[in-house]
Amino acid sequence: MKNEYQPKEAIIKKAMKETDDINTYWISFLNKKDQEDFWFEPGQFVQVGVPKLGEAPISISSSPHIESHFEITVREAGRVTKALAKMKKGDKVFIRGPFGKGWPKPQLDDHLVLVAGGIGLPAVKPLLDDFCHGYLQVKSLQTFYGTTHFDKLVCMRYFDLWRKETEVHITLDNQDPRWKADVGLITELIKKAKIYKDSKVFIIGPPVMYKFVIAEFLKKGVPEKNIFMSLERKMSCGVGVCQHCACGDKYTCKDGPVFRYDRVKDIPDII
User: Fold this and answer.
1) pLDDT tens for residues 97-115?
2) Whole-angstrom distance between the N-terminal and C-terminal Cα of the chain?
3) Which of 21, 71, 90, 244 sees the fewest Cβ atoms within 10 Å?
4) In what order do the strands lie in the sheet with 140-147?
């Protein structure tokens, strides 16, 4: 029986800087069988532990079909993530998980729409990667990504591939001479786009973004039951013990982090 409290030793195989305070890590378990047995669904998260400092819940940002490692993209925010920022190839971390309920599995006849703000993009990156490599088959895939400044863009090395394989819209809140594409709020991109009324919409980003983005999709006729949102920012222990992630009668770590909008919209402060 799996012990969800037991951390497993892992090693950083590669560390890459995304922005001044965001880094991506390739992580592999030291025990070969642990790596072989590790499987997750896009949208799930792991608890990443640093000895003597504690753990932090981080969404997995790579495809589950990669066998040699998994990836996490981390912003420096607390003592654990700041310690991770100083780590390099060969350093050891401890992993528990995966935990939570991820994005619902897309179907062949789905029109799928991904909406990400800021550091949220890595949490939908597994779906984009799987689509580009043939593991995810849907009728259509649209992606909307927005962040504040050019220097806050993440996953830039994948933009050309994603744009080649699917419909991708990216915007910055603020003008920058290095940026030749859209400038403005992500809601403006959605307003201008053709959205199928039966689309499945997956949303992740800063809390302030949610109600405005959801409102735009409702205006376009997308039903509430087709809108899913990740509340990963509310996560803490990952196993429903600390209760810090409680929202009404829901625990973000156990019942989410992905929730169907119509089932949680009336919970106070859910977004």
Assistant:
1) 999 999 999 999 999 999 9
2) 35
3) 90
4) 182-183, 167-172, 140-147, 111-117, 200-204, 227-230, 258-260
- For position 5, what pLDDT does the model report? 80
Residue 111 β-bridge partners: 140
Amino acid 4: pLDDT: 77
Query: How far is it, in rounded angstroms, from Cα 24 to Cα 12?
Result: 10
Q: What is the mean pLDDT of residues 221-248?
A: 78
Structural domains of the chain in order of their starting residue, each with its CATH number? 8-98 (2.40.30.10), 111-264 (3.40.50.80)
Tell me which of 20 and 250 has the higher pLDDT: 20
CA atoms within 13 A on the CB side of 82: 4
Q: Go through the chain and tell me how many residues it has.
A: 271
73 vs 239 pLDDT, higher one: 73
Which band of pLDDT confidence, cut at 50, 70 and 90, is reported for residue 268? Answer: confident
Query: 144 and 186 in contact (C-beta within 8 Å)?
Result: yes
Spatial strand order of the sheet with 45-50 comes to 54-59, 45-50, 92-99, 8-17, 22-29, 70-75
The pTM (predicted TM-score) of the whole model is 0.93
